[in-house]
């Protein structure tokens, strides 16, 4: 019989559960912020540590690569050692790696420390989500809890851009990493004070061969996607890594059907609603991170904003995500079928992204970007809550960690593929615009700058079209695959 641990072991009063959620939300916010907080700080990091342009991507990729590749293993480790223990280990490791990143003296030490952050984040993220899933089982409370989680997941990236700009301008780029230490300490002390760690029943043995196949396969796929922006999708290194990674993942799928205690039990993916939710989340994150990429470059390169103002430009997006997740998703979640929220949300986000395809060098923030941000935020805000709830509903408690980990994997892989694809499309379209025979050679420095700006914006709009298609595809997949009714989103067994 399952013996509850950690939060599960504590009092079941509503006030205790909601207090615990505050500290769990702090941990999730820390994870969400770190996906983007260093993006705005990159120029300062590069100038301080003195590495070249080819290496700067590793400040971001080192984190996301380890995070995405190790999430499945992290979810199963959490099920194995107990969620309360995994939560505290994840927090401590993440805080220590953040401090090490802040003390880095070169690109190699910074990349290794960021990868360690990602590794502990891969343990922490599914633990947070599974703790929420097993703590809130009443439909109305569950919807509210996942609405808070969804708002953090959807708006945390934009908030990270703002916070990164403020911290970089005020205290320097290292503050973007040191800030995790006090946040992790508060989260750990809060949860530890509310509930003492209980004894836990040992979960299933770890599937080491499956972990190796899944981890190396995902590393190859994510690494290939990160290199596609500079080498191109048809280059031998990218195509070789992508093919090899997919082959390893196929071998992983075959192995999981044969091993007694699989890393990813096939039953997790046997539910069409769960698969549809995973795909919807992947597409939503791909579109969101694509919008961050486009908007960040547009406001800084075309509009000329500094780091702080570039971060402030994303505030309406964060507010829209929070408003739609709390006012719409949380209230309607228990009453309507998941796809009744997911499909319109994806289509609204796609409409917002489609507005970005109309940008020109003469576009202004209020008329060109703000409407798109609001539509994106309102749309994505109602996607995460029902998708995450559907993806974690109906699973055995021993599988809660791995079911949550697949959501995180979908987010990270979706984001990596989306950003790589969108960035490659933008770069290719810009180069094609410059090479077009109709583009006359500029006669003055001013006309040269105008031509370069026009080429850059052309690349952004072409990439926005691809992001629009990704979001629309997510809506279609959700409409076809997700058939659950409101009453089917019950508690875990």
Would you write up a description of this structure?
There is one protein chain. This protein has helices at residues 14-34, 42-49, 58-81, 83-102, 107-135, 139-171, 175-178, 180-194, 208-231, 236-256, 272-302, 307-312, 315-332, 338-355, 365-381, 384-392, 400-435, 445-481. The protein is an all-alpha fold and 493 residues long. Helix 4 (83-102) packs antiparallel against helix 5 (107-135), helix 11 packs parallel to helix 14 and helix 11 packs antiparallel against helix 15 (365-381). It is globular. The model is unreliable at 1-12, 196-200 and 489-493 (pLDDT under 50).
In short:
The chain has 493 residues and is an all-alpha fold. The chain is 75% helix and 0% strand.
Overall, the morphology is globular
Helix content: over 70%
Radius of gyration: 22 Å
Q: What is the terminal-to-terminal distance?
A: 12 Å
Main sheet?
Answer: none
> What percentage of the residues does DSSP assign to strands (E)?
under 5%
Number of helices: 18
Secondary-structure class = mainly alpha
Poorly predicted sequence stretches spanning 5 or more consecutive residues: 1-12, 196-200, 489-493
- Mean pLDDT equals 80
Care to count the β-strands? 0
Order of helices and strands: HHHHHHHHHHHHHHHHHH
List keywords for this structure.
disordered C terminus; 493 residues; mainly alpha; globular; disordered N terminus; 75% helix
